């Protein structure tokens, strides 16, 4: 069962459709959304078939030191699948949800541009193209955050744009420094250079710039200020995309790719990653508890959950660079990457349910809601499943990834870190009990008596993600799945600088 | 916006043609001389911005209506991707493959001629159209916002 999809299609297909869609007017917008749904569905199928492949693609037949190349390995495939799942669900949801706004075909176009950017980031084999795709995805998301054109939305979008541009400048500057020090922009070539000569001062400086730039994109704690404004202001499916995959593809993925495969891990860098992860985890969770705006609460909890992912990856880097037991390094990495996937699913589900609640009731203030359990049954069940997953209650997916992280931390001997992880998990549980209590239980306010739930594709999108929340535990329990989906991704990162050899050899094999 | 004085109008109505032609030249000779799609497109848009400044927004919009500019923007970008995708069909399955050079134009391979370099001039033309249309749209939208928020506008 294999379908060899040429890698550039992941980028070219959404890009071509994105430019085609604005040509449709208001009368044919139904057709435009049909094409958009079809595109994301096709990308979902393609990304499922991309597992278990290792491929280096030379664009325009120009081989590595000369041309641009795309690399598909385990971690890229995992990110592609995550992006496709969330974008498929989000676009199904927006089909009805975005009828509240005007200019739907422009929205769909921007949405697909964002998908293009993210697919490009995870497939790109050289750091300058990574920067270009990062900008495509970011600029599309700036526009999407301000899509409602209300005062508060434009303010959030402007704030996001300023901080996002600062992040991009950091990354661009780092790319320049790397080029100056190694004479190449290709990841494999840089990686080879680093393996032979080690890190000099310039490259170490570039690494610091990369951490600041990608950290800003990932909203890790000292860099998180834009996220709690930007994510709640966007339309709900866009919040789902931003929190679900954008911060991971642009932030976590790029950072770990650069650190593990290009510039190499070391003990101080690993501690930086772990510290960033822990800070995000604790501060994000504590800030989230106090929020009364549903989407703002979710946004803060995204910061906290991103901390988990960063913590897992940082722990793996630490064990790896201290030459510890590689089993625990790969376990920590597995926990981090699995949590990344899980968080994409349940956080986007939570944002979709918040959109459904906002659309039915017209508010997202927790204090104005209540007693909606019977009025919105599908939303309620989806929200409960997602809350249980994010709090780490068995048998939902969040439980497995948090369990793996805690086991890895304990086995590697970091008992305090494991205790912090468990503590934050309890805080998360409190925050989502609060959501359940104020939204679905309690008294139904007088003005919400006539609330109706929107069914159809919106409900389908939520059910699709809720089912995934339940079933994704199978990815770790059922061994063949684990080997193909997760272990490949873990090995791709933990191979470290051996990445260079793999890419350069693969290129010689199929290079004409 | 009513535009500027008669002197500016007369001069810019002569110059706009030259600017436009120069933009076309930069695009078409992009593969031979410095320049190319982007810079040529900026010059093309510049000729429209000149119209906009000298004659006012309405005049420029009559010359290149907003819906047409926006459609041109999308179509040019789409054609660019389509051309890149054609590399799959003609170029042994390679994206962005310069298929015209090897497959269809093997015998007129003279470097330095206007018709050479395979598909690259086509890419330049599409990029030029795209950049011209979108840059013009950006300036047009900015000027529209200005006239709405200008407090002196209504009193004249």
Report what the structure shows.
- Chain A has 512 residues and is mainly α.
- Chain A contains 20 helices and two strands.
- Chain A has helices spanning 9-20, 29-49, 74-97, 104-123, 127-145, 151-182, 187-197, 201-218, 227-233, 236-263, 267-289, 294-321, 326-361, 377-391, 397-411, 415-440, 457-471, 474-477, 479-494, 498-510; strands at residues 55-58, 69-72.
- Chain A is globular.
- The model of chain A has no long low-confidence stretch (mean pLDDT 88).
- By secondary structure, chain B is mainly α.
- The model of chain B has no long low-confidence stretch (mean pLDDT 79).
- Chain B has helices at residues 6-28, 37-55, 57-63, 66-90, 99-104, 120-149.
- Helix content of chain B is 71%, strand content 0%.
- The interface between A and B is medium-sized, with 15 and 20 residues.
Oligomer: heterodimer
Strand content of chain B: under 5%
Total separate domains of chain B: 1
Termini gap of chain A: 26 Å
Any idea what the shape of chain B is? elongated
Rg of chain B, rounded, reads 19 Å
Q: What is the count of β-strands of chain A?
A: 2
| Range of helix content of chain B | over 70%
Overall shape of chain A: globular
Uncertain runs of chain B with pLDDT below 50, 5 residues or more? none
What average pLDDT do the residues of chain B reach? 79
H/E topology pattern of chain B: HHHHHH
Query: How many strands of chain B?
Result: 0
Helix-and-strand structural type of chain A: mainly alpha
Instruction: Compute the number of structural domains of chain A.
Output: 1
Distance between the termini of chain B: 11 Å
User: Helix- and strand-based class of chain B?
Assistant: mainly alpha
Question: Are there runs of chain A of 5+ residues with pLDDT below 50, and where?
Answer: none
Core attributes:
heterodimer, A: 512 residues, 20 helices, B: 156 residues, mainly alpha, 71% helix, 0% strand, elongated
């Amino acid at each position: 069962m294999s379908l060899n999809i040429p890698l550039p299609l992941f980028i070219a297909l959404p890009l071509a459709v994105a430019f085609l869609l604005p040509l449709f007017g208001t009368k044919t917008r139904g057709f435009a959304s049909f094409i958009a749904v079809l595109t994301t569905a096709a990308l979902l199928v393609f990304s499922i078939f991309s597992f278990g492949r290792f491929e280096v693609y030379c664009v325009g037949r120009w081989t590595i030191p000369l041309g641009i190349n795309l690399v598909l390995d385990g971690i890229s495939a995992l990110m592609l699948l995550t992006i496709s799942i969330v974008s498929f669900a989000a676009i199904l949801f927006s089909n009805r949800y975005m009828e509240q706004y005007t200019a739907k075909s422009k929205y769909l176009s921007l949405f697909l541009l964002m998908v293009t950017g993210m697919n490009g980031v995870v497939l790109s084999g050289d750091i300058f193209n990574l920067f270009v795709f990062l900008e495509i995805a970011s600029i599309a998301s700036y526009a999407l955050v301000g899509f409602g054109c209300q005062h508060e939305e434009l303010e959030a979008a402007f704030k996001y744009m300023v901080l996002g541009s600062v992040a991009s400048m950091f990354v661009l500057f780092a790319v320049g420094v790397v080029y100056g020090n190694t004479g190449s922009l290709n990841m494999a070539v840089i990686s080879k250079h680093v393996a032979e000569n080690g890190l000099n001062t310039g490259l170490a400086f570039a690494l610091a710039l990369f951490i600041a730039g990608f950290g800003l994109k990932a909203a890790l704690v000292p860099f998180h200020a834009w996220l709690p404004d930007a994510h709640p202001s966007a339309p709900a499916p866009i919040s789902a995309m931003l929190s679900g995959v954008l911060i991971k593809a642009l932030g976590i993925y790029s950072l770990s790719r650069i650190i593990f495969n290009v510039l190499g891990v070391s003990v101080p860098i690993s501690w930086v990653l772990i510290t960033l992860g822990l800070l995000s985890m604790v501060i994000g969770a504590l800030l989230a508890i106090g929020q009364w705006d549903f989407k703002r609460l979710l946004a803060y909890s995204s910061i906290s959950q991103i901390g988990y992912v960063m913590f897992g990856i940082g722990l793996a880097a630490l064990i790896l660079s201290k030459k510890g037991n590689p089993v625990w390094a790969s376990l920590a990495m597995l926990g981090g990457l699995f949590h990344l996937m899980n968080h994409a699913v349940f956080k986007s589900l939570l944002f979709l349910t918040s959109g459904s609640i906002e659309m039915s009731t017209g508010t997202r203030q927790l204090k104005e809601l209540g007693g909606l359990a019977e009025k919105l049954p599908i939303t309620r069940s989806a929200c409960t499943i997602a809350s249980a997953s994010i709090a780490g209650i068995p048998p939902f997916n969040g439980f497995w990834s948090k369990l793996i992280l805690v086991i890895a931390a304990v086995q590697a001997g970091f008992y305090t870190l494991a205790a912090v992880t468990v503590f934050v998990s309890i805080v998360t549980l409190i925050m989502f009990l609060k959501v359940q209590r104020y939204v679905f239980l309690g008294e139904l306010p007088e003005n919400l008596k006539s609330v109706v739930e929107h069914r159809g594709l919106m409900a389908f999108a939520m059910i699709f993600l809720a089912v995934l929340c339940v079933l994704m535990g199978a990815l770790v329990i059922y061994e063949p799945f684990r080997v193909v989906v997760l272990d490949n991704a873990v090995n791709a990162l933990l191979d470290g600088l051996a990445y260079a050899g793999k890419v350069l050899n693969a290129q010689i094999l199929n290079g004409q | 916006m009513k535009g500027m004085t008669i002197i500016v109008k007369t001069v810019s109505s002569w110059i706009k043609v030259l600017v436009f032609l120069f933009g076309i030249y930069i695009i078409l000779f992009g593969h031979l001389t410095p320049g190319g799609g982007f810079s040529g497109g900026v010059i093309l848009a510049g000729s429209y911005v000149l119209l906009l400044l000298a004659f006012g927004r309405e005049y420029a919009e009559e010359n290149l209506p907003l819906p047409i500019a926006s459609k041109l923007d999308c179509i040019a970008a789409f054609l660019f991707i389509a051309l890149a995708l054609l590399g799959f069909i003609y170029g042994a399955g390679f994206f962005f493959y310069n298929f015209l050079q090897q497959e269809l134009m093997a015998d007129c391979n003279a470097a330095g001629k206007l018709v050479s370099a395979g598909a690259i001039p086509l890419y330049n033309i599409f990029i030029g159209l795209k950049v011209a249309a979108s840059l013009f749209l950006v300036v047009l939208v900015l000027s529209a916002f200005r006239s709405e928020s200008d407090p002196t506008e209504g009193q004249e």
